Amino acid sequence: MDLKRKLAQLEKSQISNSGTSTRHEEVSEDAAASPSQNGASAADADREIALARLREQMAELMARDPAPSNPRPLAPAPLGFVPWETSQGIVHRRNRLWNADHWIGCVPIAAALAASSEYWALLGLDPALAECDSRKALFLDTETTGLGAGAGVLAFLIGMAWFDGENRLVLEQLFLRSPAEEAAQLERVAERLADATVLVTFNGKSFDWPLLANRFVMNRMQVPELPVHFDLLHAARRLHKPRLDRVNLKALEVEVLALDRGPDIDGAEIGPRYSHFLRTFDEDALRPVIEHNAVDVLSMVALVGLYGEPLERLNEGDWVSLGRTFKRARAIEKAQDIAELAVQRHGGHDALRLRGELAKARGDRDKALQDFERVCDCVDDPKTRLELAKLYEHHINQPKLALALVQLGTGESEVATLRRRKRLEEKSQRLAKDSCPPIPGMANLRKNK
C-alpha cells in the first residue's frame, strides 16, 4: 500500500507540473526554449524514470508467493473435556452427575427438587417465580477473562446444572479454547435456556447474563428469550446481611450451608490462569478454576433447596430477616408465624419489634403496644419509641406518655419533632389529667413530675 500511495503522489505532481508548464507556455509563447523550461523537462524525465522503477518493484512484490502461515495451535481440551458438535461448530464440555440423595453441605440435592417456588417468589420479591417448576431450573455461573461486559471480555468457562429425567443433577461445563469456538458455546447455552422455566444465578442479573447477552450480540446471534430469573444474591442479602459481614458465595457456604470447599483461588487469579494455560497448555493452572466453577454451581443448588423450605434448615439467627422479607412481600400471616417462633426461641428485641410491627399491620394495636413497650425497656431504639408514641397518642389517647417518649428522642427531623411535640403539649393541656397509667421505663419520669 505504501508503494501505491507514492506512485499516486508522483503522478499528481507530474500532472501539476505539466499543467504549470502549459500555462507558462500560454503566457510566454516566445520563450519556449528558455533555460527554466529545459530544467523542468529534465525533472520530468527523472520522475518518469523513478515511476517506472517503482512500478517494476511493485509488480515484483505482487508476483511473489505469500509467506507461509504458521498459526499457533489451539490449546488442547483440558481435564476430561470432550468435543461436542453443534450447528455453530465444536465446543468442549465436561459432564458430571449426582443423585438426589447427595448432600451439598447441610442441604441434600433432593431439597432443590422439592423446593417450593412460592417461597422463592417471597424471598425474591418476584411473583413470577411462584409459577416456576424447580425441576426445570437451570443453574448458571461463568468464569471470565475480565470484569464487566466489554467487547474484549469472554466467558471462557460456563457451568450449567439441571435435573434430568431420573432426578439426577447434571453439571455441564463448557470450555472455550479460542474465540472461534464461542458461537458453539453460546448455542449450547441457548439450548439449555430454552428447556428451563427459571434461570438461577448468583449476581447474574448484574454480571453473568449481561455479559452473555453481549456475547450473543457480538457473535451476531439472536439473544435467547430469558425465563424468569432468580438472582440468589438479592435474596441472600435480605436474609443474611444482618448476621454476616459479607454476603458472597464463599461466606454463605461457610456460615449458611456448612460447606467447606477446601483450598480455593481468588477471583482475581482466574483470568491470568486462563491466559497462562493458553500460552503453556499447563492443566495444573486451570484445574482450580474448573473446580471453583463447579462448586459455585453446586452451592447455588444448595441455596435453592434451602430457600425453598427456609424454616427447616435456616439458621435461627436469620428468622427475623426472613419474617421481614415476608412482610415486605405482604405475606403477613407467614411473617407472623415466623415472628412468633423467633420470640419463642429467644430471638431478643429484634423478634419482639418484628412481632409488634406485624401486629400493628394486622390492626392488633394492643399487642403491638405491648411488644413495643418491651423493646423500649430493653434497648435504646428511637424508631420503636416513635411507633410507641404514635400508639400512646392515637390508640390509648395518652399524649403525656407520648410526649415523654418524644423528649427521649424518636429519630425524626428537628422540624417533625417540634411539630409533634407542640401537638402533644396542646393535647395534654386539653386533657389536663393528673396521672398516667404505669408503663415500663416511665415510672421515674412521672415521680419527677
What is the CA-based Rg, rounded?
38 Å
Q: Do you know the CATH topology of the largest domain?
A: Nucleotidyltransferase, domain 5
Share of helix, binned: 55-70%
**Helix-strand pattern:** HHEEEEHHEEEHEHEHHHHHHHHHHHHH
| Uncertain residue segments | 19-33
Question: How many individual domains?
Answer: 4
CATH homologous superfamily label of the largest domain = Ribonuclease H-like superfamily/Ribonuclease H
Tell me what the structure shows.
The chain contains 19 helices and 9 strands. The protein is α+β, with helices and mostly antiparallel strands. It folds into 4 domains: 2-63; 82-312, 2-Layer Sandwich (Nucleotidyltransferase, domain 5), CATH 3.30.420; 315-379, Alpha Horseshoe (Serine Threonine Protein Phosphatase 5, Tetratricopeptide repeat); 382-449, no CATH class. A 7-stranded mixed sheet has the order 1-2-7-6-5-8-9, with helices on both faces. A two-stranded antiparallel sheet has the order 3-4. A hairpin with a 5-residue loop joins strand 6 and strand 7 (169-175). The protein is elongated. The relative contact order is 0.08. The model is unreliable at 19-33 (pLDDT under 50).
